[in-house]
Amino acid sequence: xxxxxxxxxxxxxVETVQDGVHEALFEPVIxxxxxxxxxxxxxxxITSLVANLLDRGRMAQFGPASAISAAYLQPQPDDTVPRFDxxxxxxxxxxxxxxxxxxxxxxxxxxxxxxxxxAGLLGSxxxxxxxxxxxVDYPGEWLLDLGLMEKSYxxxxxxxxxxxRDRVEGAAFVAALEASxxxxxxxxxxxxxxxxxxxxxxxSAREAGYSDCTPGRFLLPGELEGSPVLTFAxxxxxxxxxxxxxxxxxxxxxxxxxxxxxxxxxxxxxxxDRQIVLVDALGAIHSGPKxxxxxxxxxxxxxxxxxxxxxxxxxxxxxxxxxxxxxxxxTKADHIHHSQHPRLTAIMEALVxxxxxxxxxxxxxxxAMSMAALRATVEETMxxxxxxxxxxxxxxxxxKQAAFYSGELPQDPAHILSPARNGAExxxxxxxxxxxxxxxxxxxxxxxxxxxxxxxxxxxxxxxDKL
Length: 467
Known about the structure:
The chain has 467 residues and is α/β, with parallel strands linked by helices. It folds into 2 domains: 2-138 and 269-376 and 442-466, P-loop containing nucleotide triphosphate hydrolases (Rossmann fold), CATH 3.40.50; 144-264, no CATH class. It is built from 16 helices and 10 strands. The protein has helices at residues 2-25, 42-54, 86-94, 120-126, 140-144, 153-166, 171-178, 188-207, 245-267, 281-287, 289-305, 313-317, 341-351, 353-362, 414-421, 455-463, and strands spanning 29-36, 68-74, 108-116, 129-137, 274-279, 325-330, 365-370, 378-384, 387-395, 401-404. A hairpin with a 2-residue loop joins strand 8 and strand 9 (387-395). Helix 2 (42-54) crosses helix 3 and helix 7 (171-178) runs antiparallel to helix 8 (188-207).
């Protein structure tokens, strides 16, 4: 068995080196990871990005647009990974009655290839070259699990129980935990009941706007639903005999890391060299100070999962990958007037300051911005109680047109982050509302992708230098 494992690793290593040499010398491949926590807009981002790279009429801030002579979709190179269903998602957004596409529930991939004309004398000598963009879509909840690799069951349990006791949504699970005996002999119905209570709590916490809800597969189990590897929960510190509930939960936690988290890192995450993390910052602000502080800590944990830095040409030939650029993007910027976009960007920069400092120190390029991959609203100014309000207008989920004012974001991000760090229960100087809009009906002219806000700048930062 050990010899087989060694042979398998050597074979994979040889394949990686061969692929790296071919990519670096002939047809370079950019592997762009797209992730974000629930409702951040990953599916819409990828769909709009691909559509706007195929038809670049709205990509004024994307430098390589004029050098691309052709862009086309190809089968993705990984035959065992589902293809990102671009055509179906685009049809949902461009239908006569448009609707949001289904959200990310598993890893998927899409390859977009470019014919690029090199500039200067080199271009006249060599002609167009081919560059592939492999977009890897994966749930942010799974990304958070990478942090578990460095934690023992006792460490994770202590953190998870502290969070559950601090959240209203955790009350039922905490009560069930107090009624259980971790030292009792393992009983599968009791184990399953406690795991279900824990899973219900995680789902409720996510709905309430909290970001740190690990293990991520409890929220998106896929084919693992009901398996023992997803049937455990955190338990209080203390000794327990062999064969007890606690010992079994600890064993399953280690199996989860070994059989679920580690393969995801090895097969998908470790090969990414550019990354965008989509964040529903407005949703967190609406949920309150605790949700904002939870989001700030989560962003730092997410960055710890990356291997930021730069890889030299020789190491890239040997198949070594590090995340060279990371973009933290506050989504749904179309839900507020453009006059507030700089404030949202400043809040986003403050939220990810710790994460960016770590990445910058390791040599990775980082940036924070506010954006909307698909613009669903238009802007207006209206009078209300003798004041002029900058509002956005769009179609609500009920199908009605509505003008919406979310409240004024503070100029100083500290007015958001300080109460969050100090454990405030609510905002003292105002409430920040959100509204869910349907996608707007689109009428696209030839050569144009869907309307957006700063999607072209995001693409420029992430892949512009490679093209």
